[in-house]
Write a structure and sequence with these properties.
heterodimer; A: mainly beta; 6-stranded mixed sheet; B: 113 residues; mainly beta; 4-stranded antiparallel sheet
Chain lengths: 112, 113
Amino acid sequence: GESVGLHLPTLSVQEGDNSIINCAYSNSASDYFIWYKQESGKGPQFIIDIRSNMDKRQGQRVTVLLNKTVKHLSLQIAATQPGDSAVYFCAENMEGAQKLVFGQGTRLTINP
Amino acid sequence: DTAVSQTPKYLVTQMGNDKSIKCEQNLGHDTMYWYKQDSKKFLKIMFSYNNKELIINETVPNRFSPKSPDKAHLNLHINSLELGDSAVYFCASSQLGIYNEQFFGPGTRLTVL
């Protein structure tokens, strides 16, 4: 399953499928990007980050892709599990600004 | 072993009251933040402090006053509460520098009646 940027805030996928959550960031001067996961009633939790000098970074079951040409960031979750149900946020940090600007968030739901 | 803790978790109060939210981190971080998350889940930074010094102050009404007694604590005091202040407030901390992960607390849900 795949979401389209900030215009489709909900993504439903089958358990075991791969999920792709997209994010269109706003500032071409941003040089650091983070994906956070927020479960219901909890604070955001770090998933993975990437600097602007990279275009791909992999973690455990997650991959972040960065396309600076079109200012696009995506989070791929492999073999989605029920525990992946949450709201996912991308965040960007502008060079020198020392603050994160969060995107709208995408709610990921898992169908059994 | 809670890394970033906030109290209280829930706060229900009347318009016009003054209230405080406390935050503590035991990670040894230099920088602490307050964020506001509205009903649509939009998360926006309000303040950040580095070693007790204010470094970011977004466009926030001056009814909101952060206080950092030491680098492990960042409290948020809100005067004359308004209905629009109802939200979830998150504290976070990180090492100094932009390439460092921010660790978030569990949030304080403030409801103004």
